[in-house]
Prior knowledge:
TIM Barrel, 16% strand, globular, EC 4.1.2.4, DeoC/FbaB/LacD_aldolase
Amino acid sequence: MKIEPAALAQYIDHTLLAADATREQIATLCREAQEHGFYSVCVNSGQVPYAASLLTDGQVKVCAVVGFPLGAGLSDTKAFEAKQAIAAGAGEIDMVLNVGALKDGLLDQVGDDIAAVKQACGEVPLKVILETCLLDDAQKTKACEICRELNVAFVKTSTGFSRSGATLEDVALMRKVVGADVGVKASGGVRDYKTAIAMIEAGATRLGTSSGIAIISGAEASGSGY
């Protein structure tokens, strides 16, 4: 696949989810997103009001993570967080599913958890984070099937806060299961142009990364991070 580096900007959720992220860093994130034409900035829900106040022209969306990074909270709490984030200016929501419930085979609970957040989102797109590094292929498949049935906007590989991030194999599996109508977001470890292209070729339609500028500059991988 031939995509010029700069053309990847609209695939990218420019991300800063560190617990110690400051307003100065959020302001830089938003400025970079505007300058380079990234699709969104992805921040913790408590940072949404400030990010939204800086991105008033609507060119760059604010994406908020919910139930992050563990996904183990009460469904009502996740739904409330999503609703509050949207009221504060979030245009997309990335929620972490209940990983423990999925591993226990409590599929109705997993589905109800996602459905509660989706209802709270209304028309706002919902991405569901699987945390693929904690799941086997059968569990990943089942999670994707539930998400497909609930008609979520995206399934997403990873929080970037667990054992590892996106892999090409997981992206390909998720794309195969959800089909053409649900997006796939690769996140965690996508730090250079070559990896970004490989993820897109495997089926990703969005990339979550803190290395967006390096990616659209065509840079090689360096360092570590989201």
